[in-house]
Amino acid sequence: MGNLSLLQQTAPSWRRGCQQQQNKPATFISLILVIAKRPEPINTPGFLATLRGKWEENDARSSKVVTSSTTLVSERALKRARQAMRCLPFRRAFYNELEHEARSSTQLSSQKDWMAISRKPLSRSSTEDDLIWLIQVGVLRREVDGQGLTERVRLTPMGRDLLDNWDGEIPSADALQVMHHWLRRHRPRL
Fold it and tell me: For residue 152, what are the domain limits?
């Protein structure tokens, strides 16, 4: 009985540690607690049904993960990134350009043929804000050189995967999606 109370005291801290490391629920600890609390032998049908239920619950919780080319990305993150790409003024040529060469907001805003990469004129500050948002949603990343991060950005593997979903130009979002995107970006707690 002493081992059970020790296990119950240490389980919450182990569970938090596992969630921080793997970013998913730690059902192994809850399975140990189920085993420790059972008065009947482990090989009974009731216990096996409970164990099977816990495993199925864990599988259902982790099934919302989509494999990307290099990482595991949740469906929610993909939807948010897809919505950002549709609502921001950048065209497909912008993302194709960033796939091959890193560019800064200064370079992008001073480009003469801005209509090829954007649906509206680009100012340096608004372009930088949009690039930061695309970095936050996972479509872009800052380029690193020998001395650290630079102001130039590149397309991430997730950004490439999202571009592969669209043939031709990225479709524009409707007014409701633009409003939802604005709220998500500027008022995330609402």
Answer: 72-186
The angle at the Cα of 129, spanning 176 to 76, to the nearest 5 degrees, equals 50
pLDDT digits (tens, 9 = 90+) for 139-161: 999 988 888 778 899 999 999 99
Helix/strand/coil (H/E/C) assignment for every residue in 89-115: CECHHHHHHHHHCCECHHHHHCCCCHH
Instruction: For residue range 4-28, list pLDDT tens digits in order.
Output: 444 444 445 444 444 444 444 444 4
Q: Considering the entire predicted model, what is its pTM?
A: 0.61
Q: What distance in Å separates the CA atoms of residue 13 and residue 113, rounded to the nearest whole number?
A: 56
Q: Both 54 and 84 in a single domain?
A: no
Domain count within the chain: 2
The secondary structure of the chain, three-state, reads CHHHHHHHHHHHHHHHHHHHHHCCCCHHHHHHHHHHHCCCCCCCHHHHHHHHHHHHHHHHHHCCEEECCCCEEEHHHHHHHHHHHHHCCECHHHHHHHHHCCECHHHHHCCCCHHHCECCCCCHHHHHHHHHHHHHHCCEEEEEECCEEEEEEEECHHHHHHHHCCCCCCCCCCHHHHHHHHHHHHCCCC
